């Protein structure tokens, strides 16, 4: 629940932003960062060629585990 003071402050901030938009145009909007974006991570397996390494003939081989992409969330 907003108090009257909170409502007035919010109104003043909105008017300030509108005035700044009128003065600067679309360049003002280019500088706004929003926090409601969704970032989706994806899995990119490493190719066999990318995972090859040079090593001595007698050195033990590197253990390679099979990986599986995790199930994505659905909203």
- The overall pLDDT, averaged over residues, is 76
Described by strand count, sense and barrel closure, the largest sheet is: none
Q: Which term fits the overall shape?
A: elongated
Ranges where pLDDT stays below 50 over 5 or more residues in a row are none
Briefly note the structural class of the backbone: mainly alpha
- Give the end-to-end Cα distance, rounded to a whole number of Å: 29 Å
User: What oligomeric state do the depicted chains represent?
Assistant: single chain
Report the count of strand segments.
0
Please state roughly what percent of the residues sit in beta strands, choosing from under 5%, 5-15%, 15-25%, 25-35%, 35-45% or over 45%.
under 5%
H/E series: HH
Q: What is the count of helical runs?
A: 2
Percent helix range? 25-40%
| Rg over alpha carbons | 27 Å
Describe this structure in words.
This protein is an all-alpha fold. The protein has a domain at 1-32. The chain has two helices and no strands. It has helices spanning 4-24, 26-30. The two termini are 29 Å apart.
